[in-house]
Request: fold
Amino acid sequence: MSNTNIQRLIVCSELWKKLFHYYSFKREEFLVHYHQRSNVEITFSMIKSKFGERLRSKTETAQMNEALCKVLCHNLCVVIQSMYELGIAPEFISEAA
Reply:
């Protein structure tokens, strides 16, 4: 093992120890952050499974817009699904003539 790899193992080992102690002594706070992370991972998984993993756009701006459109469409799907599951009837405001 090279010297650099040994140094990395020591750093990782020290980091692991710190995080384990954080988990041990502040479990509630740790679990709140961990739960937020799991929610984000599940949301990304849902978006990828529903709309595909790849972006088809070529430019960076177009890719950002495409990714944001996927997130917007996912949010709309979640709202519509929740509306049906909870039996909420939508009320639309008509414009004055």
Q: What stands out?
A: Residues 1-53 form one domain. DSSP finds three helices and no strands in the chain. The radius of gyration is 22 Å. The mean pLDDT is 86.
